[in-house]
Amino acid sequence: MTDGLRTGEVAEQAGVNVQTLRYYERRGLLAEPVRSIGGHRMYPPDTVALLRVIKAAQRLGFTLDEVAELLDAGRRRHPAPGLRERAVDKIAEIDRRMADLAAMRAALVEVVDARCDSLTNCTCADCPVPFLTIGAAGR
Description:
This protein starts with a strand and ends with a helix. By secondary structure, the chain is mainly alpha-helical. A three-stranded antiparallel beta sheet has the order 1-3-2. The protein contains six helices and three strands.
């Protein structure tokens, strides 16, 4: 393959490190590249675009297992379940996480507003931290 890209070129163009490239190969996200006469891995030019797709999917919250399944389904041209369905599920998961984060934030605001000074021996009045009795329970 004379028009292929070497490992460092692919990694640089895709904005990943060489170890990521190797890891994605082991996981089956990338096909094993052909070798040059000198033994260098030579990737097809579209590998850079594929890596960018993988990284974009990860930024959207998909795990590498989910990305692998989506790529495999796309390669077979029989997506089941497809990207749209998984995206809807991912949105619901993100909404749940956002609700959890909002609850955590609200609890932390209460801690700050109450001027809590210790997780186990807080001296503030009406401490909102529910863990104050942990140390006392074993006594």
